[in-house]
Predict the 3D structure of the following.
Amino acid sequence: MAERSGNDAASADRRALLKGLATGGLAIGAARAAVAAETAPAKSVPGADPAAAAIGEHRAPDAPDPLTADHSGSDFMIDVIKTLDIDYVAANPGSSFRGLHESLINYGGNTRPELLTCLHEESAVAIAAGYARARGKPMAAFIHATVGVQHAAMSVYHAFADRAPVLLFCGNTRDAATRRPYVEWLHSAQDNAAILRDCLKWDDQPVSLAHFAESTVRAYRLATSVPMGPVMIAVDSDLQEEPLERKPPLPHLAPRVPPVADAAALEALARLLVDAKAPALLADRYAESEAGMARLIELAELLGAPVVDLAGRFNFPTDHPLNHSGRARAVVAGADVILALEPIDLWGSLNSFRDQLVRRSRPIGPEGQKVAVIGMGELLVHANYQDFQRYVGADLSITGDAENSLPPLIATIRRLQSGADRHSVAARAKSLGEAHAALRERDRRAARLGWDASPITTARLCSEVWDVIRHEDFVVCGATLGISSWPDRLWTIDKPYQYVKGIGAAGIGVNIGLAVGIALAHRQAKRIVVNFQTDGDLLYAPGALWTAAHHRIPLLTVMHNNQAYHQELMHIQRMANRHERGIERAAIGTVIDDPAIDFASIARGLGVWAEGPIDDPAALAPALRRALAEVKQGKPALLDVRTQAR
Amino acid sequence: MTRLLPIIIAGGLAGLALGVARADPVAAPPPASPADPAAGQSRYMRVGCAQCHGTVGQGGNAGPALIGTPLSPEGFARQLRRPVNNMPPYTRAVLSDRDVRDIDAWVRTLKP
């Protein structure tokens, strides 16, 4: 606690003591006794400062203040957090949670959770979000009040838009009478969550330890209930630092049953699908567990339906004959019934959109096409941020967790299918298998175009990485969309954990943190995690690389360094051509090549093995093998590769 | 490419097979002199074609490959002038007919 003087200190301590006792659930009588005890001599008086008193800095208290305590509220908070199966807490240190920080590393033994040292709140929350997505369970982050919250904001929005369960604890000092002068006022807020609330699933600011315990367990439950999302508990510093008189009870984390869609609705959907001549499946934020992929394979094979695996999650093996993600438009155009599983932007999948001076759109599918949805997306819609996408009036919209609703849907379809239906399914599957094979062959041929070009083509980049990791137990993550989705098009990825997809809020600055979190999640299994990393993203918060080095998190980062904010460059080109001004100046403000940024030096400066820049495609494979050797020793490594734009 | 994504903005030259030669006010007029592929490559790089189609026309998810384009020279010019998809329009104010012919000539030199 801050140093205080005389009567102010006494009144503040009385408030604090009463508050602490109230949190302990003691009776009023006990509280009165404690107030009386406050005036009694303290058990020890070390640290009295006669010199300070002599020069008037401190008025001698009526009774010497206690200076130590065996336990404070923050110890109990760690007890609560330890009940929640949280492995790690990511944090950039901040005084508003100093009590919690110290209790974690000493009282809590810095295990389960273990504190990860982060260099930016954006990194801390991104690491937590990446870990949560890869492990399917929450990770926590401690966030400094006000300034830390603002640094964290972008990653929190990402976690919200990606439906990642992240548990945030934000420090704060609510009581103005107990704040240290000056800086602590700058780092206190009436409502720290205010600037994040539009992208938090829930938040609270407990006023007692019992309140903290219940709200933290509630926050965990809400974060992990579909639709999942980030939650935040603002932790009062007085509550953290007040001596602990009695521990409140630890709330029980009750198990939940995931919501399954209504049986009658599934019966109607099954009939629609069985009667369809050309059913198609769109899977987006669908597969949250290992069972999800197997269920979708079963459904697709049962229907003889093509699957378009969208960008929200990794839902379907890339090599499966019914994977038609590379011909999404043709699939939608040819389908008479579409079932969308946990769609994010269903309208965008069903319509073409022309981004010219006059923006126009039109449906891709045929007239009379039926669209059905199973999902939970509408149960987590906030008003401000528009991540909920354009409205689609589906013919059959079923609320339920799609992954857990597939088993009863599959059982119903099996019951309804006739022998003739199964014959049609077999014929469709044969035709779709041929189309899939043709698509893969087309992609393989396309990958050879510009094979020896420099800057290196993104297809060559992915082909070389594939050659190095294909026999490893690998995981791929990062900005794969920006490299023309070549891993989806060229690699055999068939295990649910092998590909962490999800563009979240499509902001840059979070990817490297997400990758570190994903690598942390797979460290124990000794998987090779490959992160495709754009240059623009890495420049926001490269300190996440140091966190990987410091905590010995193996991660192979391969850069897609096109020396530009390329998406924005294309937007400027569009505007310039629209105004008939020519696009030769579009590089102003969008290109980052003069001076060329030396990412290998940046990485080495952060303690990460690195090579590059690599311009020669022939030099790529040997460098990848050297980098992989480092990763196999449990270290992060980075290759800076100068690449084509896309 | 797994999504019909607005994040991919360009669209590109080979969006539709427009290979049928016919009179068109936006198509390039008959060439006054032979096209210059080397000049076309230079213009290709300067006016931003490579941003979507790649420095050697290999394509990507922002624009299709130009190597072995199915478009006729007239269709190629028409797509540049009045794109049928999301590709930014290259009017005569920013790209002369000569430039279009030169770029077309260079594109046709590209081999897989």
Summary: Chain B is about 30% helix and 0% strand. Helices of chain B lie at 37-46, 49-53, 73-81, 97-107. Confidence is low (pLDDT under 50) at residues 1-12, 14-25 of chain B.
